[in-house]
Specification:
By secondary structure, this protein is of the alpha+beta class. Helices cover about 20% and strands about 35% of the residues. The strands form two sheets. Strands 1, 2, 3, 4, 5, 6, 7, 8, 9, 10, 11, 12 and 13 form a 13-stranded mixed beta sheet that branches. Strands 14-15-19-18-17-16 form a six-stranded antiparallel beta sheet, sandwiched between helices. It is globular and about 55 Å long. The chain starts with 20 loop residues before the first helix and ends with a helix.
Length: about 375
């Protein structure tokens, strides 16, 4: 897909995401809303006008609560994930990724100019991402592990330097991803006006032209006043309900209390310091060699991401979880969800995309 520049907004820089391939692919594929709250009739816009309106949105202050839910058809893994503490440790990364793909999450969003915070409220814990662009620093705080990591950004703060990450994507992040990847492979239309979190909203509908894509459509609710994304959802091809959705249940475009955006390490927390920079990382020659970087095959909605072989194969509980999630096929094992398929080749390579297993196997075979 071609690259499209969108206006910079602090809310767009609150990075939050999971750990594994599945998460990355789903997030890249993007999202659904509940637009039927009440009858709304906003001034008509063409698809092009609505795209322009959404891309021009530049909210600088807000507070809100978002709810995210996922139903990708994965099996219940609680028996494996709920084992011994050592087992939990060994499967933590995959469990976190699966939790994002199979469960629901609540998060609070705070934004005031250069400062932003995403507060993910888990059942028994809380994760917070604080970002201060003016100070070129941020915090990632995990109440379960009692760790607080302060990230300092070196270099141009407007660059694509990595940021602290959690486990929930905001509707705006998903919209920005979608707008950045729009090209001729997408049918764009305007849906039905509605209300989300008490706000009148347009509905932007994106659908792949290629019938090989597992994704049927992606819908966004666009605030009728500010152009901000209020919700997003992804529906699988042929399905009538979204498999993944995230939406504001409450939102106000006003600045939060300043104290909400400031973090000071609490007693008992372990504090770590990290420096994030892309340019220096590459300049020092420490960037991964080409053989270790992901490779993208194809483009648009049916693009396939290939990951190089890992240093070692999964063992113990991780291997058991992988066996539970996947089924054997010629040349490897495959994990199928409503939106994404992952092919684990026998040689260790991993292929993922919003396509069927045959397409992934064909790419793996060099077709």
């Amino acid at each position: 897909m071609g690259t499209r520049q969108t206006p910079w907004s602090p809310v767009r820089r609150v990075s939050v995401a999971g750990a594994a391939v599945l998460v990355a692919v789903v997030a890249a594929a993007v999202v659904i809303p509940t637009m039927a709250e009440a009858r709304v009739d906003l001034p008509d816009k063409t698809p092009a006008e609505l795209l322009q309106f959404a891309a021009a949105g530049d909210v600088t202050a807000m507070t809100g609560t978002i709810e995210q839910s996922s139903d990708l058809g994965l099996p219940d893994l609680s028996a494996i994930a709920g084992g011994s503490s050592s087992a939990k440790d060994s499967t933590a990364g995959l469990s976190d990724a699966l939790d994002l793909l199979t469960g629901s999450h609540t998060a609070k969003v705070y934004l005031d100019g250069d400062k932003a915070r995403l507060q993910v409220l888990d059942r028994l814990a809380e994760r917070d991402v604080y970002v201060d662009h003016a100070a070129k620093q941020g915090w990632f705080v995990d109440s379960e592990t009692k760790t607080a990591t302060r990230y300092t950004v070196s270099g141009d703060p407007s660059s694509s330097a990595p940021e602290p990450r959690a486990t929930v994507e905001t509707p705006q992040q998903l919209l920005d991803d979608a707008l950045a990847k729009l090209d001729d492979s997408t049918d764009i239309s305007v849906g039905t006006d509605g209300r989300v979190a008490g706000r009148d909203a347009y509905e932007l509908v994106l659908a792949p032209k290629d019938a090989q894509s597992l994704i049927g459509e992606v819908r966004f609710a666009i605030d009728g006043e500010t152009g901000a994304a209020l919700s997003a959802s992804i529906t699988a091809r042929g399905a009538d309900q979204p498999a993944f959705d995230v939406a504001f249940t409450q939102v106000a475009f006003s600045a939060p209390d300043a104290a909400t955006l400031t973090y000071r390490p609490a007693p008992g927390f372990t504090v770590e310091e990290k420096t994030l920079t892309v340019s220096e990382h590459e300049a020092q020659g420490s960037a991964p060699p080409a053989a270790q970087r992901p490779v993208v095959h194809g483009e648009g909605w049916t693009a396939v991401v290939e990951l190089p072989p890992a240093d070692s194969a999964p063992t113990g509980e991780s291997a058991a979880m992988l066996d539970t999630l996947t089924r054997p096929v010629s040349g490897g094992r495959v994990l199928e969800t409503a939106l994404v398929t992952v092919f684990f080749a026998d040689d260790g390579r991993v292929f993922a995309g919003a396509v069927g297993p045959d397409s992934l196997a064909q790419v793996a075979a060099g077709g």
